[in-house]
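REQUEST ID: PR-0412
SUBMITTED BY: lab tech R.K.
PRIORITY: routine
TASK: structure prediction, single protein chain
INPUT:
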Amino acid sequence: MGRFVWTLLAGFALGTPAVPVGLSLSLPGPVVLLAVLLGSVCCVVFAVFAMERARSHWRSWQARRKSPVASTGPVASTGPATGTSADGAPSGGAPAGDRLSGAAGRRARRVFERYGVVGFGITGPALFGTWGSSLLGAALGIPRWRLIRWLTAGVALWCTVLLVASDAVLDAFGVE
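STATUS: complete
OUTPUT:
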């Protein structure tokens, strides 16, 4: 039971790369697959809900900050911080394309625009990891349950592939 729990926790923390951890703990392949899938699905659900909550708090904070009712006097509306950042770029309210401007964000957007939710859900765990694909998918604004459903399918696919590959490597080297 303890090895199953450790594999489940590794699945939550690492995602699909936890399959070799379970095999190294001498668990049978189907048990490893079940534990890592349970942990990874918990990770996906937790990350998607947490990211959506963070996005809603961020949007409400931006709305309060921009609303004219929230300002208490002329001091709040004067100065260089009215609608622009220090470098002169517009602050807040950036379109979705600017929100994920890093390398991983650009790659996630390309995958999402080219293949849609299904392609993102299937390839996301392999390209960005379980945590990364969950957070990036939620940040891209993919609907919650569609994202969870397709990421679960992708995690199941990649866990199975990794289980077969890890088992084959362990058999090739004679590791029991």
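NOTES: The two ends are 20 Å apart (CA to CA).
REVIEWED BY: pending
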